[in-house]
């Protein structure tokens, strides 16, 4: 009996498989189309042949919020030999997925198991984002599936943007946004190149709506490159700004202006119940021996940097509302909002005027002229002191007061000001402010180069150095520093390292050490060949095949000065030629000079805007080839 | 009514849960906690990231009648001495509820987590885990509040895992006493009722487990206590279980005495009426394997294979049968497994009467039957890898590796196969070790166990031979390299795994043995065509990925990027233990190894040898003995084509010779016509070197490294 039921089950399952296999193989046209697409998109496995996205709006039951319905239909095709993907959709406490399915080419349901899990990210301790996904295989080239999704947002403020690009190339995409007449909605277009996206608006008097239709073809996949600008800079998209809605005769404002955005943010911070008493003692302790106000401010700001761990929570409204300062103080951890609030409250306790400040980091293209929650992603604190504003970012480590990380420089901030707000910009700094300099004086000792080295760092180069150095275990720090200075190269021995105070984030950071470099001096008969290039800066910085801007962590100014004493009785036959490039965003000068009995080899790399634009990548790559040619040259000394 | 009952049940459960929770808390942090006031750490460890003041491991095995309850717990009390330690311990995650996979029924297990912080002023703050923890699917995460450098963190995880079973072999536990941080005090406590059979011991100078006699005679408790343990340090070529203080244990549960036999148990059982076993004797080995191993299997496929075939010797016959069996009983299922894994179709229903030797035991039993049937004399050899320590210290049954020794003129050893094993060669970790040998009477019955020593291989057996032909391209912008590599002996396997893929060796096997492929067994022609297309698509995708992986691997070998390399496998080396894997490669080296000096060029010819071991300062001070995988030799010939119009200088430095009792590095360079030919040999002579020989190893390693740095000058004539 047992056996027969198993057998029945087997037959049943097998017949489902057989039934499911009818008319799902790709047609000859599909295969041909897949091959053509793969030739064009040779890094992608999947192409979205057609995508139709419909957006409609409704009022919730209480008529207090505008709901959004987003339905997506896609025709997915495998353009490689085979593809195995996870088809997924995110949702959170403000949205829900109402249907999520995949069908074969013959429109029969493909029953891939659907998993529904929290989205986990190493950078986020906890967030309410969940992901629904299925693991899908496309067994042969040209295989297709029809994907469909129905998703609902409870509040239009969280439905912020629509993109035309996708994880995979999109061959044809249509977005239909049906806006009811009772909703005042602005569709703000970004990065629309002339003629590439066709837009129509068709009013429908029968149901008092207007449908805006956008169509576009041949959109490449979102880049998988690293160190790129945020996608709001790179791709065409629409920002949806719901300004107000009308129910019967009542008009309810939403985000009509930046003031509305601030009003909502303020309503959230007004909900906080800060109890600064718990950190009174700490503030007293930190400021007691401070001789100046600046010292007091630094003591507080640096204490927060050093003692409050960044742990990110994004849980419903907590994604927008800061945690109370007393909680952050007592827990010794918080996210950017909690840290900003703690800085504010501690500075206030010390008698300063400090305020919460919203900001969109460099990753986001927008400014506060757009009233949307998509505009910002970070919070800092602004200190008003003697007519100046100091921006204090508690999430930075080893940041000196008055210096600002590249990720926030030049960005607009919204500073709380009672019922009003202040819009300012974080000051820009120059690459010189982050200068890293390396000096080494060498002489030839047998078959070695020996000498003394000096390194110095300021600004963000110092911040980065200190942050990395201090993250190592105490017992590994010495060894780690040696490995860093020797570039983990067995040929480079460093010794007698002397450093400036490696906890001080205000002063110039210096490292002095002795160096001995093996295998860079080769004697052949009466000649000595010297390879002065043992640091190889930017040698491997080749942006081959890159399609998007390369963004540096910070504006970079690096200078290297290598001096070699020519041994007595030897003369320099020929020095390598100098090399330089001067572009808007970067400049490099490589020079060789003989001064007296020394060869001075100088390199200056300046990436003054922290970017190499995609339009300059060919220039950089051509330069990099020349740089490598210089690095591959040796200096010949003849008796 | 239902709601009321449910409520009552919930309340009862919650009360039990609270009781458990409180008892557990009391167990670790209660009155009996002798470390509760311990906050000081020794001066000698002041620069360590953290110091463990107390580490307690707890294991409890209980038969509660209807189910078995396995409890395991760990408590650590440690001082955080730097920011890295604060970060390391700032978040914890655990599954507070889980389903046990140990028994027949999926019973729910629980994990209790407790954590407290002791501030420098002595104030204790216990974290309210239930309140603070966030749940993400099955996982709970907690961020530890108010954690600072100088704090003491005291935490425990306590796992309660009930399950139903009549007998069960638990996973073995093998650990060093040390931790990633130094440990001031350590305690391991293992409690087991009489239905649990315990294999337990400690080694390499670790304190011994002591039996604590309690009131209840049917409960045994074993305790190990240790102090002042330095943090673990695992240098290159090192076996921790051979040198460092360590402990091992494994538990077997039998619901009643009937299951306390080798018919069921997969551990070495203690003597009758006892429950603890600390050493394994020759007799134990005999008893276990006599029970477990007997000739069995279906010989028909081998008989069909052998029909009409003649062999010069039994040796040849054994080798042929081993290779056939490797295909017929192993590799032919690989294609099916890949097909199933890729969701193409369920292929296993298409196999009829096939034999799949899914375990070492089935393999041994099958060959016992074959050898018996063919009247070929054999023994069974049982050894343990050198990494587990001496044979006398063998305790964990699964650390035994089993071989068949066929007593042909030159004995042939057979080990359980994978895609690349071959008759005559076996796991190098067993070589040159003391082992047990089971004698077989009349090719049938295990009659006796004795000692033997397994044969060794030498550096002559395990050889990598590489010939690299190097020439400059036309405009002197790159070096063109053609490499021919042959891998012999134990070098073969890793290289085969990397370079010979399933689509290569399956084609080889199917073609050699004429076996019907699984896809050819699909009845419907239409389906067959569809599945073949899908399988081909999968193979093409995997080939693309492997091409990338090969490029990455080659680039890592040279430590710079190699573009578009070509690899051809000339011989997979799968037939014959003396047959090498042979590969040919072609690639160009751009932007590296060639430096311009006026009108002359410097070629970093030594780097053609690829990256060599770099001994750093810390390694110079090595205190441990040296454990090599096997004796081995690398033979390299570099043939450099001297470009017309140039002469070569600097070949003197390419001649090196460091030879000692541990191995050697020699290189000899000569110019023959327009070729510079350099013959290089690096050799490790032994499996083991005492620490006193470390400097000798270093001397030839340094010479090899220095060779890799040597250059030649191409001087314009």
UniProtKB/TrEMBL annotation, chain A:
One of its GO terms (molecular function) is peptidase activity. Keywords: Hydrolase, Protease. The keyword Glycosyltransferase does not apply. Residues 283-357 form the Transglutaminase-like domain. The keyword Flavoprotein does not apply. This is Transglutaminase-like putative cysteine protease. One of its GO terms (biological process) is proteolysis. It comes from the Bacteria.
UniProtKB/TrEMBL annotation, chain B:
It comes from the Bacteria. This is DUF3857 domain-containing protein. It comes from Flavobacterium aquicola.
